[in-house]
């Protein structure tokens, strides 16, 4: 049933790079083959439910600016169904393959968990029918364990075991729904898994709770036959002062400590990487190096604001460096590129919602095309390979394989009178080389 929200807007088509209007994909040609794979299959773009259909345009100093029909007062489930109608209309207009959601995005919270679960399952029934008709698939689902006041001191890390149990029950339903809808992943988004002061915090106890909670999810995943990937999204300081999932390195250390590094991967957000003091490409490269890369939330920050502004990604050079790391690591498997981004609160019209996704999809596609061209050109990788070539010689490979002791190395330096000289890292050349492609 047409809702009228997108009246007058045509489905978005590929129009080519020479087009002079931005309503149309100029670079996102989903069937274009790049490095042996279709562009759609490389990027696996997903529309996120919360920012696109739930955020009303508020900020700390002002109220709602969007005032969508499904946000108005009325029967909450009727509004949820209207929101689903609008969402799938947009999915069809955009022609993108995936979407993502939190449980509280798609259905209202009830007076009890049983009522909340019934609401979520009722909308999941709606989704099943719409997904069959549209072909849009679910990249991942997750549970909102941060908005309700019961979670003000965390969910898995809460000092109250009854809150821990409630959160576990909520995740069970969200994972069941994700499994039923054929989700490729399930994300644990630790919105309040951290602490504000050590004066009232037992840090080791909370880490143990978080480790057990994650293990419970993994155990249940296997019991129900969910074949998707369990993901954790690193976040540095949002909203608690000290987040236990600060960045990729912190998450990996946590997973290793609790024996979960083979079961859980990371969903890396560009905005969170920046807030953690890293570049996006650093977090991607480290996740690949540690074997825990899973998926990405694609957005950007306003670098003057110093906060997580969740803007649509439009910076092609940044995106090229990011997708170069993704391609170098072998690309996505179950993961993909989730538009974890929201309109600016002055962008009021329905066409703004479409245009934001179109413009960002094009920028992302341009970034991947540039990254693929860098890889095909080969000079960046060849320079890096040459820089480490000495380690391929047998006498040096023996060091890393454990065949040489500290005494052996000291004897070698003395015997061969080694006086190593610095070699240029050629950073400016490499940065200039990148600029040939972006």
Automatic annotation (TrEMBL):
The primary gene name is xylA
Q: Which organism is it from?
A: Polymorphum gilvum (strain LMG 25793 / CGMCC 1.9160 / SL003B-26A1)
Q: What is its EC number?
A: 5.3.1.5
- Give the cofactor note text: Binds 2 magnesium ions per subunit.
Q: Name one GO cellular component term.
A: cytoplasm
List of residues binding Mg(2+) 1:
233, 269, 297, 340
Q: What is this protein called?
A: Xylose isomerase
Q: How does it assemble?
A: Homotetramer.
Please name the NCBIfam families in this protein's record.
PRK05474.1, xylose_isom_A
Reaction equations catalysed: alpha-D-xylose = alpha-D-xylulofuranose
User: Chief location of this protein?
Assistant: cytoplasm
HAMAP family in the record, alphabetically?
Answer: Xylose_isom_A
Name a single GO biological process.
D-xylose metabolic process
């Amino acid at each position: 049933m047409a809702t009228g929200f997108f009246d007058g807007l045509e489905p978005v088509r590929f129009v080519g790079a020479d087009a002079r209007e931005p309503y149309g994909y100029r670079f996102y040609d989903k069937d274009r083959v790049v490095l042996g794979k279709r562009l759609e299959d490389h990027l696996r773009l997903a529309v996120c439910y919360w920012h696109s259909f739930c955020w009303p345009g508020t900020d700390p100093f002002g109220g709602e600016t969007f005032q969508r029909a499904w946000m108005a007062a009325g029967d909450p489930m009727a509004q949820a169904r209207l929101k689903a109608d609008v969402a799938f209309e947009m999915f069809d207009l955009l022609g993108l393959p995936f979407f993502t959601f939190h449980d509280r995005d798609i259905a209202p919270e009830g007076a009890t968990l049983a009522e909340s679960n019934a609401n979520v399952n009722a909308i999941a029934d709606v989704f099943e029918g719409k997904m069959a008709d549209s072909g849009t698939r679910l990249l991942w689902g997750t549970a909102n364990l941060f908005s309700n006041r019961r979670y003000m001191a965390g969910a898995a890390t809460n000092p109250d075991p009854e809150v821990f149990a409630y959160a576990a029950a909520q995740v069970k339903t969200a994972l069941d729904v994700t499994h039923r809808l054929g989700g490729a992943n399930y994300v644990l988004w630790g919105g309040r898994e951290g602490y504000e002061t050590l004066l009232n915090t037992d840090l080791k106890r909370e880490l143990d709770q978080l480790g057990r909670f994650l293990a419970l999810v993994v155990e249940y995943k296997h019991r129900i036959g969910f074949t998707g990937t369990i993901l954790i999204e690193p976040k540095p300081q949002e909203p608690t002062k000290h987040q236990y999932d600060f960045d990729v390195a912190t998450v990996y250390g946590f997973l290793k400590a609790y024996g979960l590094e083979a079961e859980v991967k990371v969903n890396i957000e560009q905005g969170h990487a920046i807030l953690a003091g890293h570049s996006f490409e650093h977090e991607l490269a480290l996740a690949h190096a540690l074997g825990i890369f899973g998926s990405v939330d694609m957005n950007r920050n306003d670098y003057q604001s110093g906060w997580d502004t969740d803007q649509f990604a439009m910076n092609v050079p940044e995106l090229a460096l990011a997708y170069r790391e993704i391609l170098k690591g072998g690309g996505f498997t179950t993961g993909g590129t989730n538009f974890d981004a929201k309109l600016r609160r002055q962008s009021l019209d329905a066409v703004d919602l479409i245009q934001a996704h179109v413009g960002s999809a094009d920028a992302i596609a341009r970034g991947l095309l540039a990254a693929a061209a860098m890889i095909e050109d080969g000079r960046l990788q060849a320079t890096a390979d040459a820089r480490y070539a000495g380690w391929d010689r047998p006498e040096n490979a023996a060091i890393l394989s454990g065949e040489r002791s500290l005494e052996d190395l000291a004897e070698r330096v003395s015997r061969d009178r080694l006086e190593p000289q610095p070699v240029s890292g050629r950073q400016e050349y490499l940065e200039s080389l990148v600029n040939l492609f972006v």
